[in-house]
């Protein structure tokens, strides 16, 4: 008894798959659909943004400095925008930190500290003097494993838990600017 090899069938199957993929790509390209890679553009076709000094109305000094630093790092990673001074930028971003609340999580034996950071964020288009986005109570909450003495913040900088809540706040602002429009 002789067995036939299936080499022609394998070749035909690969050829069909290749043709299908080519037709799919041509079809998607022809209908205007495209795959976006890299950085997202700013809302309203803007190309520049001014990050105004962050105002800190909380009792914890240094939050504004770390938030501005985190946000600048996120914004600089976007290739489709440039950070400019207020007078030259298309958009201005204003942030005022309103409150930072500390709370404990879990049972007393293994309680950790969590933070809730609340602030006001306004994104304004300087070209037409319109507010593109405003959130008077943008709030981010983070939990943490472990406890920290918050009385030594001035001497030692921000604790890891406070850095974490600031990083989350910066990421939330960045996300809202680029993904919610």
Topology, element by element:
Blueprint: H1 7-30, E1 48-51, E2 55-56, H2 63-76, E3 82-83, E4 91-105, E5 112-125, E6 130-142, H3 153-156, H4 160-179
Parallel strand pairs: 1-3, 1-4, 2-4
Antiparallel strand pairs: 4-5, 5-6
Helix pairs in contact: 2-4
The tally of strands reads 6
The best one-word shape is flat
Q: Name the average pLDDT.
A: 79
**Spans where pLDDT lies below 50 across 5 or more residues:** 32-37, 145-156
N-to-C span: 68 Å
Query: Percent helix among the residues?
Result: 25-40%
Structural class: alpha/beta
* Fraction of residues in β-strands: 25-35%
Radius of gyration: 25 Å
Largest sheet properties: 6 strands, mixed
- What's the number of helices? 4
Please provide the ordered H/E string of secondary-structure elements.
Answer: HEEHEEEEHH
Description:
The chain is an alpha/beta fold and 181 residues long. The protein is 34% helix and 28% strand. The protein contains four helices and six strands; from the N terminus they run αββαββββαα. The protein has helices at residues 7-30, 63-76, 153-156, 160-179; strands at residues 48-51, 55-56, 82-83, 91-105, 112-125, 130-142. Strands 1, 2, 3, 4, 5 and 6 form a six-stranded mixed sheet that branches. Helix 2 packs across helix 4 (160-179). The longest helix is centred in the N-terminal third of the chain and has 24 residues, at 7-30. It is flat and about 65 Å long. The protein starts with 6 loop residues before the first helix and ends with a helix. 19% of the residues are buried. Mean pLDDT is 79; it is low at 32-37 and 145-156.
